[in-house]
Write a structure and sequence with these properties.
Layout (H helix, E strand, L loop, with lengths): L1 E2 L2 E2 L6 H7 L9 H7 L3 H6 L5 E7 L5 H15 L11 E5 L16 H16 L4 E7 L4 H14 L2 E4 L1 E2 L8 H4 L5 E5 L3 E3 L19 E11 L2 E7 L1 E2 L2 E3 L2 E3 L2 E12 L11 E4 L2 E4 L6 E4 L7 E3 L2 E8 L1 H15 L8 H6 L6 E2 L38 E2 L6
Parallel strand pairs: 3-5, 3-6, 4-5, 6-8, 8-10, 9-15, 10-17
Antiparallel strand pairs: 1-7, 2-20, 10-11, 12-15, 13-14, 15-16, 18-20, 19-20, 21-22
Helix pairs in contact: 2-5, 4-5, 5-8
Length: 392
């Protein structure tokens, strides 16, 4: 499995990074995301007693103490109350054991930034939620699936910011959990026919029982929502340099049957994504991550700017499910999204995530909407981004 966090810090303008970038693209705080998605009021009062589980691989520098320190620093930066006890923030290994030492970071230290991003984005949406972090021993499917089963046994909402290519059409681990919400990121490699080895990662996001979250580029005006486009940063020019920061994943499955509740007609198999949120690192967020070597320091915090990827969007949506507080009543959260009123979404109608355009590299004319945004459903952004909690 690959984690889906993307860093554009090296390409951001140096002057804003020295202190003036807060609330601007690449430096969004929790209040910006809450305002954009219509959850500001709910975030102040809802979520108490709700646990959101996060599944990640490897450990974190400093173990539980390091995680709690950085999480509390993010909460402080955003004006939230700290989570100073193990009551509201717990860390277990993939089989549910809390005894130290927890899994080491292994060869892939990038998962530490992924973990910090996941914790911070759940907190950004639902600062009152409890968080359970389940650390798999490695990024191998077997370890992450063991961690997933543990998370499902301990929480009703589980966030996953990783993926790999399609391998099976269905699995009880992800498809048969009434009363549970499983959220996963759509990947950062652009459009692809799910199941094509060269396509972006698609499972667990592409399973019928998972809420598959795509990515957008979020724009605000004076702190208010000003629209979104499909996140696509292929060969983007930033400060006279060319960067390839990726694009939101989407696809038409090669092996997962089309659920009866999916109403699009071009793709005869499972279509992804279902819903979306900000993921563009250029319009990304601030996180606190000591192991990442944060480059901007405010209030003595190791802050990273320009963080995104669908790893931002998935835990943000998971946190919104925490605010909604109804996970235990849902039979299939993806179906609820597909049958929800259009007024519950910001319909994202522009942009594409295919290097060659809407009908070039991947998408034929019959499934052009899997690669390009338009009115109503499309692959890159699903039905759109949340406009309040009604779609959840």
């Amino acid at each position: 499995m690959r984690c889906d966090a993307v860093l554009s810090d090296a390409f951001l303008d140096a002057k804003p990074r020295r202190g003036g970038c807060l609330h601007k693209p690449g430096c969004y705080l929790a209040s910006d995301l809450q305002a954009a998605y219509g959850i500001t009021t709910a975030a102040k009062t809802a979520g108490n007693g709700v646990t959101v589980a996060i599944v990640d691989a490897y450990g974190y520098e400093g173990g539980y103490a390091g995680l709690a320190r950085d999480l509390n620093a993010y909460l402080k930066l955003n004006g939230f109350s700290p989570c100073a006890t193990k009551r509201c923030f717990k860390v277990v290994n993939e089989v549910g054991g809390a005894d130290l030492p927890l899994p080491g970071q292994g060869a892939n230290a990038g998962w530490q930034g992924e973990t910090a991003l996941d914790l911070d984005m759940v907190s950004a949406a639902c600062p009152n939620c409890n968080i359970l972090l389940v650390e798999a021993y490695s990024a191998a499917n077997s370890d992450l699936q063991t961690a997933e089963a543990t998370a499902l046994s301990m929480a009703n909402i589980v966030s996953n910011s990783f993926g790999s290519g399609e391998s099976v059409a269905t699995t009880p681990l992800y498809d048969t959990h009434p009363g549970k919400v499983i959220v996963a990121s759509a990947g950062d490699g652009g459009a692809g026919v799910l199941g094509n080895p060269s396509a972006p990662e698609s499972q667990p996001c592409g399973f019928a029982g998972v809420v598959c979250v795509g990515g957008t580029s979020l724009h605000l005006s004076n702190g208010a929502y000003a629209g979104e486009t499909v996140w696509q940063d292929f060969n983007v020019k930033i400060n006279h340099e060319t960067a390839n920061l990726g694009a939101t994943g989407s696809g038409c499955s090669a092996i997962v049957p089309k659920p009866s509740w999916q109403t699009d007609t071009g793709c005869t198999m499972r279509s992804a994504a279902d819903i979306s949120a900000n993921a563009d690192p250029i319009t990304g967020v601030i996180i606190v991550c000591t192991p990442c070597g944060g480059s901007l320091r405010a209030k003595k915090m190791p802050i990273m700017t320009g963080i995104g990827g669908t790893s931002e969007a998935a835990p943000l949506i998971a946190g919104m499910y925490g605010l909604a507080g109804n996970a235990a009543t849902l039979t299939n959260p993806s179906q609820t999204i597909w049958t929800s009123s259009a007024s519950n979404f910001h319909d994202v109608t522009s942009g594409f995530n295919d290097l060659a355009g809407a009908t070039g590299l991947v998408c034929t004319p019959s499934i052009a909407y899997i690669c390009a945004a338009g009115t109503g459903y499309d692959g890159p952004t699903g039905w759109g981004s949340p406009n309040g909690l009604g779609a959840l």
